[in-house]
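Risk mitigation, structural track. In case the binding assays with iron/sulfur cluster fail to produce interpretable data, a predicted complex structure has been prepared as a fallback.
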Amino acid sequence: MRPFGYVKPLDVDAAVLAAAAPGAKYLGGGTNLVDLMREGIEQPDTVVDVTGLPLDTVEDLPGGGLRIGALVRNSALAADRRVRTRYPVLSQALLSGASGQLRNMATVGGNLLQRTRCPYFYDTAAACNKRGPGSGCDALDGFNRGCAILGVSDSCIATHPSDMCVALAALDAVVEVRGRAGVRRIPLAELHRLPGDTPDLETNLASADLITAVELPPPVAVNSRYRKVRDRASYAFALVSVAAALEVQDQTVRQVRLALGGVAPKPWRAREAERILLEGPAEESAFRRAAEAELAGATVRQHNAFKVELAAATIVAVLRQLSEREARV
Ligand code: SF4
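Fallback model:
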C-alpha cells in the first residue's frame, strides 16, 4: 500500500477543509476503501477519518419521516425499531448486504459511495474505463454475467453494488451534503450518475463534499419489501433485487414505489412500471405488463440476458406478495 497522511477531524467544517486538499479521501467504516487501497486502485495522499464526527444518530422528523446520520452503522439502522416498523424494505435490504461483521463496520455514508464489484475493475491487469479512463472495458466481451442491462453505455456496464441504496431509491430518500459552499440536499435518484462516456465519475458530488445525513419522507405505504436474488444465500451481491412499497384499496393500486438493484450502474427507480401500475388493477397480469415495460430498454451481453426475465419474475413475485398481504389486512 502506498504511504498516505492521516487526519481525524472532530467537527464537520474541519473535515470538509481537510478533504479540500488535493488527493484527500474520506474514510468511514473502511469496508470498501481499505480494500481498494490495498489493491492500489485507490491511492489517496491523505485519508480524512470522519468516524469522530457527531453524525451517528437516527432522529424523528416532523410528520413521520426519519433523519439518519451518515455515520450510523448498517447493523444499527437495520435494527432500529422505527426503521423496522415504518420502512421494513430498508431494514430487509440492509440485512441482506454483506456479513454481520461488515454491517457492524459499514456506515450509511460509505454504503452510498461504495464502488462497483466488477471483477475487471479490481484486476489491475485488465482494461477498465472506470479505473483508467480511456483504457477500454474488458467486461464488454468478457465474462459479463453479473453486469448491468439498464442504463449502460459502450464505456461501462458495471452494476452498483449496494442493497441499501435500492431501498432508499424506492423510499424517495434525500441526501444531505456539506460542501465548501454550505449544505445541499440531493434526491437519492440524482446522487449517482450513469456511466455515459465518463464511468470514472460515479456521483454528482464535488471534491470535499461530505455526506452528513439521509432523510426519509413519511412512508407512502407501510407494506414494503426487499427481495434479493443471488448465487449464494449470504455474502453475495445481487444478480437482481427489488425494493417495493404498495398500497391497494378496492383491488386497485393507490400507491406504488419500485426500485431495482443488480441491473444498472445506479440504484434503478422503475418509474415506467410505477406509471403503468398506479390506479390500475392489483393483479398479476398488470404486474407482469409493468415489469416488461420497465425492462423493454434492456441492453444485454453474452452472459447476462437471463437478468431480463429474472428481474421481471422478481418484480411480479414481490408485488404479488405485497398485494396478497394487503388483501389479508
Ligand atoms: Fe471497468 Fe465498467 Fe468495464 Fe467493469 S464494466 S471493466 S468497471 S469499465
